[in-house]
Amino acid sequence: MTLDTTRALPIVRTINDLRSQVFSWRRAGDRVGFVPTMGALHAGHLSLVEMAKARANRIVVSLFVNPAQFAPNEDFERYPRNEAGDLEKLSRQAYCDLVYLPAVKEMYPDGFSTAVRVAGVSEGLESAARPHFFGGVATVVTKLLMQVQPDIAIFGEKDYQQLLVIKRLVKDLDLPVEIVGGATLREHDGLAMSSRNAYL
Questions:
Q1: Any alpha helices (H) in the chain, and if so which ranges?
Q2: Alpha-carbon distance 153 to 160, whole Å?
Q3: Which pLDDT does position 2 carry in this prediction?
Q4: Contact, 194 vs 158, CB < 8 A?
Q5: Could you tell me how far CA 162 lies from the centroid of its own chain?
Q6: Domains of the chain
Q7: Which residues are catalytic?
Q8: Nearest to residue 18, comparing CAs of 113, 180, 150?
Q9: The whole model's pTM is what?
Q10: Per-residue model confidence as pLDDT tens digits over 120-170
Q11: Taking the alpha carbons of 162, 98, 50, 197 in that order, is the dihedral positive or negative?
């Protein structure tokens, strides 16, 4: 297995390398936690990593901007990306044991044709304006959970409808992972911390 390192923080970019590392942890009896993100990390994300570390021995953080949850007229190309800055924040924090940085082709190879849809909790609210959104989220989260195979995964409560969608898909698909919500962190003026705040 090949591991890239930035400031001593291990990075994997393929499913095979990811699974090889997680398997070695499991063989040693470690409990694995997972925090999926789209990068552009802020204190809210880091608080989720800290939550995961309190519940597991080894922590995987993914950085992947998921094209499947963006409509053609949305901000996929402009979405904030700062890989070097994200890795520096994670390495300073010391709670992260492995960063998963897959390319789009790794997540959605040529010929990919499967979609996960969660009825009921996906309707209304966010999906009223973005009907494609939760299908893209449900599909990528299902893939990530199956790739990492964590014991526990932490998702922010800021996107509460998304959290409910993920809890439902995990229950319905019998995925052996505990889903935990992390409290929303806010800026000094009360605005919820968000990667898109970089636009402001």
A1: 15-27, 43-53, 83-93, 104-107, 126-129, 133-148, 160-172
A2: 15
A3: 47
A4: yes
A5: 12
A6: 4-199 (3.40.50.620)
A7: 45
A8: 150
A9: 0.87
A10: 766 554 544 454 568 889 999 999 999 999 999 999 987 788 899 999 999
A11: negative
